[in-house]
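# nightly structure sweep
# worker-07 picked up a monomer target from the shared queue
# config: single-sequence mode, recycle default, output format = structure tokens
# input follows
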Amino acid sequence: MVSLIGIFVGLAILILLSYKGVSPIWAAPICALIVAAFGGLNLIDAYAETYMTGFIGFTKSWFPTFMLGAIFGKILDMTGAAKSVGYWVVKVVGSKRAILAVVLSCAAITYGGVSLFVAIFIVYPLAVSVFKEANITERLIPGAFACGAFTFTMTAIPGTPQIQNLIPMQYFGTTPSACPVLGLIAAVIMLVAGVVWLTIRQKAYEKKGIGFEGRKEVAEADPNEKIMSPILSFLPLVVVVVVLAITGQIIISLAIGVVLAIVTAWKKVMDYGFVKIMNEGAAGSMGSIINTSAVVGFGAVVKAVAGFGILTDAMMSVGGNPLIAVAIAVNVLAGATGSASGGMGIALEALSEKFAVMSQESGVPLEAFHRIASLSSGGLDSLPHNGAVVTALSVCGLTHKEAYLDMCMTSVVIPICTTIICIILASLGIVF
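# output follows
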């Protein structure tokens, strides 16, 4: 029982430190040692062996994916390809439907494999332009970011190359397109519900006489700016998704995407500097992989103490549906760490073998476990201390008080409700 208390104490401190902006690179091992101390483990061994084994194991498995993804995003950003995609979406959708245009711009970029952090910086000037033209308050921009980048393209749409859809493959032996029907249903629910919520909020602000406020000076997007052809810009994004669907190999998919992105924008790459763009992209991957590995290492120590068995039994005994246990475990740990990939990594590292047994006993396919785990990672992860939430608000020059409610609805409440609906549908046999 003492070790169980230690788990909650360690998690609570990790949440608090994350909320305060403390890096998990040093916060996670400290919290892991707290868990180890309560669990009666040797602290030196707990850090040097247990913690670092979890840390290194995740880095070994996912470093190429993080690095190639960061390089891919850097190339699309610096060559203007991602901006071209955003302009095209706005042109098709129309600036009068500014909220939908921003949501779909984020979705198009992130579904193609670009990090949601990169998407925020790329789409922001575009969002300011269309929101200004439509006279919509900037307070809704973070909510639109969250709807388009933090939800359905991250966890639901089959074949998405985002890491939250790939991690379950390692544990369940599934593919990126696991449960495509369920994933598509989830994606439609999150997209429609998110846009409807933001539109309702827009009308509420209009009734109060609040429109575009222009509170932060920013270089707005220029629709007449000479940028890459939308066809060439979309090509690398589409190829990454298609190759991933065919091969199931994210490293191959991203490598081909990187080469194609360089070829289609060769002159711009050379003007910026080939070595420079590769160096910056590779360096940019380090923060993400190390942060995630740090919290996975914390999970390895949690798994090693006796209290984890008690916690596991409690989560496994919730309800008669094994997918409920998956949803609870991943959501709680994603919320605790403020990281979708980190929370899922902890949960699956610790519980995937039990989930596999539950799959055999219940007859629920592992593909359903994959999709529910992925969906669940995109729920409580977006609490106020989440890095992407903080980044989006900072870029927009807004506070949590001004804009977090809409982010919470689009990337926490709606995804959790969607996950519940999907568990019900999976239980009825819609797991194709």
